[in-house]
Amino acid sequence: MPDLDFSHLANASSEQVTEMRVAVLGTAEIDRMVGHMRASRETAESKATPTVNRMVAHMRKSRGI
Question: Are 60 and 30 in contact (CB under 8 A)?
Fold first, then answer.
């Protein structure tokens, strides 16, 4: 297995990180995660909500929705 260099991630924007998550996990896995997060009232009331909203907005933008 090659050495993995993650040093470039230290300065990544949240949008770049979201793009990487989508690339690594795939949109189906992201959709599943978002569904679970939205289903939970505790999560909706927590600090995770802005992150979920950013992920959904990014997916919609990248899909042209």
Answer: no
The residue to which tokens 């505790």 are assigned = 42
Q: How far apart are CA 12 and CA 56, in angstroms?
A: 19
- 12-50: per-residue pLDDT in tens? 788 888 788 777 777 788 788 777 777 776 655 666 677
The confidence score (pLDDT) of residue 47 equals 64
| Tokens at 23, concatenated | 């690339």
Give CA–CA dist 65/59, Å, rounded.
Answer: 8
The pLDDT of residue 10 is: 74
**Residues 51, 32: Cα–Cα separation, whole Å:** 15
3-state SS, residue 38: helix
